[in-house]
Fold this sequence. Notes:
Blueprint: H1 2-5, H2 13-30, H3 36-42, H4 46-70, H5 74-82, H6 84-100, H7 113-137, H8 140-147, H9 150-174, H10 178-187, H11 190-208
Helix pairs in contact: 2-5, 2-6, 3-4, 4-5, 4-6, 8-9, 9-11, 10-11
Amino acid sequence: WGRVLGATGIADENTIRWSVAASLLLFIVSLPFSATVQIYAAYQRSYLWNVFVFASGFLAFALLLLAVRLRVTLPLLIVASGAGGPFIAAVAFYYAIRMAWPWLRPNITSISKQALRPLLSLSVPIFLFQFGSLVVNQTQTIMLAHRCDMVVVADYAIAMRIYMLVISVVQIGTNSFIPALREAYERGDTNWTRRAFARLLRVRLTIAV
Length: 209
């Protein structure tokens, strides 16, 4: 793992191995709740999800400060800085299926081939797109670690965080329009969908500028 991440000589292999395990653990724990944001968007309640996102960021930052103050090891630092997201996502999921929309509570008896077939036809292309996006957007730091050093990686990560602030503002301001576009497209109202998407694109570009 030290060679893969370009961290050979920076930390011992055992620390790097447990750090990778900590990152993988956070990913696995958060995976079951990854569709929660779509529930809020589908019911036009994205503003509620944004409240949970704010709480997640606040909790993650607080845990990060606590971990730094306690001078914990790198794997524990990763867990502390990343645990806020899965925890708040789980809270948001619980609120959605228990209080806001209890009829969405998962039920294994409701699974059927008739339901899975159209779901797979929609989800597989999205999954492939996300995988490609992951490869494109998440490999720069590894390349920088191999070509330069960890200081450059840290500088790049901070600059990317600032850049992502702009994207976050665009998404928070316009993501609530997406479900309506999808619904119109499924109904076959393609003319309205094209016009509305063009307007949405102009709004997003304006916010970005």
